Amino acid sequence: MLSDFMVRNRSIEELEGDRWPIPPADSTSLVRNVHDLRKRAIKDLTVEDIRRLIAQDIGLHWLLPVALDFLRETAPQEAAAGWYDDDLLSAVLSRRESVWRNAPQLARHLDGTVRMLTDLSPYIQREVDDFRTNLSDLL
User: Fold this and answer.
1) Model confidence over 82-101: pLDDT tens digits?
2) Which uninterrupted H or E stretch holds 119?
């Protein structure tokens, strides 16, 4: 598994060695939530928490392997039932091209997982097509 090397009992804040200040009182709920999630141990994050952090480009170095392992583990069941508009898959697929170019093994792993899926929604299929087009030389 990609995330076997992870120290899951540590938080993104600890792993990055960067303590963010308390968000201003008038911050959005998203900002407050992201600040809170950075302080939680990775093992205590839900799939939705991981999706939210990845969608905000936070902790990608540590969270992408966890997300990719989850997607790979669940792909056979999802393929059997059809995979429609999965938020975690969408968050992962839509990361900047540079993220994948800096971690080509992760890009290839994601591509392999997506190839296991059937009946992708048009929305997800567009993201898959963009991902593959932008990274065709790596895959």
Assistant:
1) 665 589 999 999 999 999 99
2) none
